Task: structure prediction
Amino acid sequence: MSAADPARAVGPVGTSTERIWRRFSSAQRLARFTVYLVIVAAIVVSIQTVEVIPEFLADAPEQVADLLARMWPIDFAHYPGTVHAALTETIHIATLGTLLSLMLAVPVGILAAHNLVPVTPLNLAAKLILVSSRSVNSLVWALLFVGIFGPGALAGTLAIAFRSIGFVGKLLGEALEEAQAGPIEALTAAGAPWASRMTFGYWPQVKPAFWSIALFRWDINVRESAVLGLVGAGGIGMALDSALNLFQWPRVAVILLAIFAVVILAEVAVTQVRRRVI
Amino acid sequence: MTDPTATVAALPADPFRRSLWPRLAAVALAVYVVYACAQLEVSWERVQTGLDNAAKFFSRLFPPNFHRRDLLVKGLSESLEIAVLASTLGILLALPIGLCAARNLMPLWVTWPARLVIVLSRSFHPVIVAILFVKAVGFGALAGALALTVASIGFIGKLFTEAIEEISLKQVEAIRATGAPFASVLAFGVLPQVFSRFIGFATYQLDSNLRNSTMVGIVGAGGIGGTLFAAFQRFDYDFVCAILISIITLIMIGEVLATAVRAIFIENATLPDLLRPGAAMRRVRHAEDD
Result:
């Protein structure tokens, strides 16, 4: 919270004995007020226009009770067969997708770093790739790849990879731009070629950032790959989708529990690896 | 260390010599990739037939078909409504929960349940939560809004807790020393310290809710996602393309607005400042991550 510029504080200066101190200038207050106004207007309009069916809402407690009653004795007999296979497939999708995205994101991240590639059009092109990868949801990427490669884990892996390029590339590009110039200048002065400058100048500096970005993204991807199956892109989402369509609620419960366990384990694993290695 | 040659001799011959572990890890990784590809039945032929399909697929995506504008506008506005409602409700609920979870202000028996709520809301993808809410409150925007509310509680709650745990306790102590009640300690000692970070993640959450509100429709929870998925299943690829273009435009507009809000509240920008290229806008952009 930066304090307001005192020079901008509004108040009668000089003549009057009383001086009114204000934290923000009237233009700043106008800007803030506009934001508040827009927020309130958006909320009011949304509440008025959103379609809520009162019968469904009145029905909700009953439906929740029904849901829990159908799910409750969780039947782990469903796990060994299809659920386990689908769960391992999900983890494979997340891991392979992350690896592929690392391979694809490194060149784009390098192109986006202005100190490495001092060509502004190339930087902008790389940033465009990163932004478009990030602004398309992984489910949309999955839809596109299901359209191209047909349903299955391949589409899921590619969806995870393409969604992750933007994230990994952006953070990697920023890490590269923050690298200290000293070692690189020393290498350049010694006549080191580009490859040596990369491996001995930049890589040691961005290595911790790179591995922590990779781990962080893997953690996110484990969560995301669990839903890709809803659009046919493989993994546990497909098992979830078929169980839902057949109203097999006990099986849904087992699947949700499996997803929960994997997500928690992935988070614990990432925290442990980060603490020990990085 | 008086003799300079002694230090030189003590250095290893190759300062960049690699240890054995990274190599072993690389080999293990390569073995894993081969194994996982075999498990997933990913093969080069599949990729190649896919690439042949891709040309066909993209030729059907273009040109985008904007004829069914009503459907498009209805879906998009419903997504917007879901995002606004979910962010409002989520932020309102997340603030007390996040406060309760802060270890430096609250006793252990309060932080534990609050942390549990946050972990539970974070562990499932919003689309999965949406499935459960569709069952509970029926198809439609309400289910989507509630699902994204849960997601917002998880995200904002976690970050708000972390922000509060990082504050300087000197100011809190100073206000306590005046005999102020707990509410005043919060209002004058805690909230001013976390306000700018709060603006940062509130705008980020609105952005993220907007992205997800275009997706929850896939499981019937309202918004443009349902239209998108239906068009996809009917092979109306040109309409799919139109929907995707609209979604991306909406998200980009949302991002620009979020940046403007951050500039106003964090950088104290005025409305004319926002229109000036450069300065405030660019400085805040660094604050966002994925």
Notes: Confidence is low (pLDDT under 50) at residues 279-290 of chain B. The two ends of chain B are 50 Å apart (CA to CA). Chain B touches chain A through 78 residues (CB under 8 Å). The first helix of chain B runs from residue 4 to 10.
